[in-house]
Design brief:
Elements lengths: L2 H8 L5 H12 L10 H9 L12 H13 L14 H14 L3 H83 L10 H18 L1
Amino acid sequence: MTLKEELNSWLNRDDKLQCKWFLQRLTGERNIDIDAPNYDRCVQLLTSDSNNSDQNMTIEKIRRSWSSYKGKYRDGVISCSFVIDIEAYNELTSLAKKLKVTKNKAIELIIHKQYSKEVNAKIRREKREAEQKRENNINLDNFFRPLEYKKKMKEATELKEENTKLIQDRNKLIYNISQLTVLLNNEDVLSTDLTEEQKKTAKKMYLLLLEKET
């Protein structure tokens, strides 16, 4: 059995962490999503020559390397290595003793507490921003409502004035018609001035026509 065949047989499709790790070995890529379908990519690379794997790689080296890597991620934990100043370390030691937990657990508690604080602060901030936005919208409505009322009142006044003018024009037209009718009835079409008697007749006719119009 060739090395590629052995690796293909050794690779566990259901072990997403193993597939991610092995794909990193084959491609040299570091940022690979652990939930991505890495198994198929690994198989594809193993069946081709386009991979960055060590030419001296053996199945035994791969198994040992994987076993060492897997030990850092067992049971949902990861091995970390970092440096902190002495004062912070002493404070961590004191806090761990007070809480009766290990230093690792104390660090986890601090992280969880701070993270929850940040998340809750973000939720409260977003809630305040949403409330402020609603309040601003209400204020805008209250600001524009009087302006809209004034606009409607102005339009109503203009319509009233226009209607009054139309009534006046109508009355003037009716009066002119009344005068013209009197002149025509007296066959005095060339006359432009009415006698007093004709004016009385025209006024009566005007009032009668106006009454009919209203």
